[in-house]
Amino acid sequence: MRTQHGVSLTYGLLETLGQSIVSGHYDGSGFPTEAELCQQFSASRTVAREAVKMLTAKGLLSARPRQGTKVEPVSRWNLLDPDVTRWLMERPFSNTIYREFTEVRLAIEPVAAALAAQHADRKDIKAIRDGLNGMRDHAAEHDQALAADIEFHVAILRASGNPFFWQLRELINTALRLSIGVTNKISGHTASIPAHEAVLIAIEKGDADGALHAMRAILLESLELIKTYDPAVGE
Amino acid sequence: MRTQHGVSLTYGLLETLGQSIVSGHYDGSGFPTEAELCQQFSASRTVAREAVKMLTAKGLLSARPRQGTKVEPVSRWNLLDPDVTRWLMERPFSNTIYREFTEVRLAIEPVAAALAAQHADRKDIKAIRDGLNGMRDHAAEHDQALAADIEFHVAILRASGNPFFWQLRELINTALRLSIGVTNKISGHTASIPAHEAVLIAIEKGDADGALHAMRAILLESLELIKTYDPAVGE
DNA sequence: TTAAGACAATTGTATAATAAAAAATGCCGC
DNA sequence: GCGGCATTTTTTATTATACAATTGTCTTAA
Lengths: 235, 235
What we know:
The structure is a homodimer. Chain A contains eleven helices and two strands; from the N terminus they run αααββαααααααα. The first copy, chain A, has helices at residues 9-22, 34-40, 45-57, 82-90, 95-119, 122-137, 142-159, 163-166, 169-183, 193-205, 208-228, and strands at residues 61-64, 68-71. In chain A, strands 1-2 form a two-stranded antiparallel ribbon. Helices cover 66% and strands 3% of the residues of chain A. By secondary structure, chain A is mostly helical. Chain A has two domains: 9-76, Arc Repressor Mutant, subunit A (Orthogonal Bundle); 93-228, Four Helix Bundle (Hemerythrin (Met), subunit A) (Up-down Bundle), CATH 1.20.120.530. The structure holds a DNA duplex.
């Protein structure tokens, strides 16, 4: 295995295997043994073992002598691990996972907004406002509008002052990127600027309850969109 | 290093190092080099490296040639990793971390209860009721009452049907175990049975909004308790 | 003073050999 | 035939060693 774009062999293999596992590549067939891994990826045993150990640390694999290395059931995966979350995005779009992401966001973000209303300092508020302005200014260019949308939501997580909320930034990043796949198919729908502005205003006023409900409204709408749109039917 | 109680050397070292890092043992001094680790723990380089790699996968460490291995800032830790969460409990009690845990619970559990009200099947409800009954029947014995309390809350996470919520069981487990350290110091306080019962009843009725608010009430009370009780003052 | 190059420290990678675990197999006595 | 026990075999776990790659530091010369 050749080292690619600055990543070490071990981390390259970690990435490759992580994506393969999450996308179900080994579901029927069982995971390769160490020897097979070394051969398939032309890697040394050290590299293969360390990649497997890292995947084990994330709950994706387990290994025992004689029994081999197995893919763990999804219920054991560390779904909130940023790497795992990211790998989840690389697999074929699933309405279910998108709904589950949004349910997590529905739980976290309103409370984060409420905490932000209580604790945000000037710098926090500037970051949130920058996100909102970006959404407004680049409404036409999808990529930049999405980036600004993400910036807005992540800035609120940070402003909450709770490091655990901050951990979920990768999930929200992923969820919002998935969401374009959904909302683009629904004619004329774009992220609502006024709804986002309401959140900012409430945070600026220190209105925790207002921020909570304004954010909750944004996410409830997303959740409604998902339920309305069933990919099996068409739109 | 001798293998202890059935754990492999690598996992033993992972546990030891994880606890040490989280408890701040290397904060001033910097993390040992591979060579030093091998010597200090009488471990082979493979064992040391694999333990370090797993800690890297959890965001606690980073390693670069010539620069050595460093403890990452807390903001990079995978705080929602079950192992990390558990290690956090082993360090000296901190009012801050307990508040942060409870804020996460305040976000997650009400929404989980609402989803449970929509999706719970008979088995889910039985598990929740078992928890509640356990709290009632063993109100006097602290250990069993705590276990039942945990069972109640975790059963609701499971009943939500969202695997991401289920990931937070270790955090809730830890938070509730920490909570006895707080509530025991507040005379006469025990987990409120009626408040928990209200959650169960709402879930049984399929009343999502009722379940959400009932659960929210429980957690808001916990949060109030923390604010009231300042360990610096005494009680 | 600065830049080029040599040096050194530390992690990264490779390989070989042995140990331990546990499943599979075969053997034996009955 | 069949149950139980010893043996074999497969696979990961551990140890040891050597070399490569990276990068900070020091030296030296222009």
